[in-house]
Amino acid sequence: NMGRTDLIHDETATARSILKKQGTHVFQVLINKRTGRELFRVQVGTTEGTYWVYGLVREADFNGDGIPDFSWHGGDDTSDRSLAVLSSPNGYRKVDIEATLRGEWRRRFPSDPPDKSLTDDPIFSDMKLVRKSGRLLLQGIIRYSDISRSDGSKDYEHLLRVKEQNFVYVK
User: Fold this and answer.
1) How far apart are CA 17 and CA 39, in angstroms?
2) 104 contacts: CB under 8 Å, gap ≥ 6
3) Are residues 168 and 95 in contact, defined by beta-carbon separation less than 8 angstroms?
4) Can you tell me the distance from the alpha carbon of 171 to that of 163, in angstroms, rounded to the nearest whole number?
5) E strands within 5-134?
6) pLDDT for 76-122, tens place per residue?
7) Is the full-model pTM beyond 0.90?
8) Residues ≥6 apart with Cβ < 8 Å to 122
9) ω into 68 cis (within 30 of 0)
10) CA–CA distance, 82 with 95 (Å, rounded to integer)
């Protein structure tokens, strides 16, 4: 499950975290407990920031390659970010969960709902990575209100499944 938790996980079975400051940016860096090498890092704010909650939500082998993968969440009072961090032959790759679901929505429904109502206040829930027939999928529900209707707003809910080739990766 990719959902938000209380984010108390500073470490998992294979990784521990440290904070690093680089200039005005602050990063959570995940370190392999066995080797001491950096697995990946995520920017969690700036030195000017006063409130930010972040951390590992779960460790599991999501993609089935025998190497631990992670789900990560961070946010403050103005925004949030959920990542699936997947192992690959060249290290870890970070999947932006919301951007991936938004991209799939636009591929499937290019004109419904209007972009304005989707980008103003969509709600993503029940996000999880699913492995089916050896393939990895991101699954999630998107809820939104269509405020462009002349008879008032109407709420919608759609289940989206995204193939790995359509994941949106971030640095």
Assistant:
1) 10
2) 160, 161, 162, 166
3) yes
4) 20
5) 15-22, 25-32, 38-46, 53-60, 69-75, 80-88, 91-96, 123-132
6) 767 788 999 999 988 999 999 989 988 898 888 776 554 444 445 56
7) no
8) 102, 142, 143, 144
9) no
10) 8
